[in-house]
Design a protein that fits this description.
alpha+beta, five-stranded mixed beta sheet, Nucleoside Triphosphate Pyrophosphohydrolase, 345 residues
Length: 345
């Protein structure tokens, strides 16, 4: 059997029963693929079910408001995916009468859809012979063919794309593409690959040359930046607070948060008192205290947020205040959502 035939044979025996594998509906496939970018299947599956329950069709998603979409997405991270998801649903409904493009070339023009996602939808739904390249596929190809070109370099992207095209199974592209991703996830796993009972072990160069744990090669990540967030949790006598939508194109765009003072380093209470007026206008503050003595370090892909929550009590009524008990209705970063759950008024 050829490389691709062995992959398909393995897949038919070992594939997991995942909800988006029981359909060829491009809406469901697109939804699952966007959710599983940068996300493990175990984490993404409950969100997939939530979205399908709340938005059974692309029309339902298009007609939802952004705040509702972001709230359902809360905790899944990389929120630009949710905003792109919503925008693309509107485009499919308004420009294509609710029908997704049926080709790779048409799909890749959609917002938030890159090479991998376009290839996945085109092959899973429409049998177009386009190879998929995700982290699992890169790993299988790099190990089996002994390729040491960095997978996240421009040279690597081109090389692996051509290699993937050469070895794909045109006759059964749907099972092959799903199979090689599943194979990389279960059989040719990152840390504990099952090489002893692998159907590809007789031809695997990495196994033969004892380089399984050296491949694939990846260029070093961008340096992680440390940021210092000080959230000002205002509380008036009615237990109302200030909760505002985050604007701009940085992290957490259009999510809600408390007034934020970002500083160059960790600050103490005296430092905070000198900076409060830069962030909020308060006629009086009856009490200020720090909720968490140790900063909560929230890790994102290229930045670590060293976060403190400062509680500011005031007798003055907060303008446009929102009752603290109602904050869980608003979409917020998981860092803030966790604080809201834990804080006792």
């Amino acid at each position: 059997m050829s490389f691709s035939e062995k992959i398909i044979a393995w897949y038919l025996l070992n594939k997991r029963d995942l909800p988006w594998r029981n359909t060829r509906n491009p809406y469901n496939i697109w939804l699952s693929e966007i959710m599983l970018q940068q996300t493990r299947i175990a984490q993404g599956t409950p969100y997939y079910h939530k979205f399908i329950d709340n938005f059974p069709t692309v029309e339902d998603l298009a007609n939802a408001n952004e705040q509702e979409v972001l709230k359902l997405w809360q905790g899944l991270g990389y929120y630009s995916r949710a905003r792109n998801l919503h925008a693309t649903a509107k485009k499919v409904v308004n420009d294509f009468d609710g029908e997704f493009p049926t080709t790779y070339k048409g799909l890749i023009k959609l917002r938030g859809v890159g090479d991998y996602t376009a290839s996945a939808i085109a092959s899973f739904c429409f049998n177009e012979p386009e190879p998929v390249l995700d982290g699992n596929v890169f790993r299988v190809l790099a190990r089996y063919f002994g390729v040491a070109i960095p997978i996240n370099s421009s040279k690597g992207s081109k090389y692996f794309k051509e290699l993937a095209k050469e070895v794909m199974n045109i006759g059964n592209i749907r099972d092959y593409n799903q199979g090689i991703m599943e194979f990389g996830s279960i059989q040719c796993a990152p840390k504990n690959p099952k090489c002893s009972n692998c159907p590809l072990n007789d031809g695997c160069i990495a196994l033969k040359e004892d380089k399984v744990h050296q491949l694939p090669v990846k260029l070093k990540k961008t340096k992680v930046k440390a940021r210092y967030f000080n959230y000002l949790v205002l509380m008036d006598d009615d237990s109302s607070t200030s909760f505002i939508k985050r604007t701009g194109k940085g992290i957490w765009q259009n999510l809600f948060e408390f007034p934020l003072l970002e500083t160059e380093k960790e600050i103490n209470l005296e430092d905070l008192k000198n900076e409060i007026s830069k962030v909020v206008e308060l006629d009086e503050v009856s009490n200020i205290y720090l909720y968490n003595e140790q900063p909560i370090i929230h890790k994102l892909s290229h930045q670590h947020l060293h976060t403190k929550f400062w509680i500011l009590k005031t007798h003055a009524k907060i303008k446009e205040g929102i009752e603290f008990s109602k904050l869980d209705k608003y979409p917020a970063p998981v860092l803030i959502a966790d604080f809201i759950k834990a804080f006792k008024i």
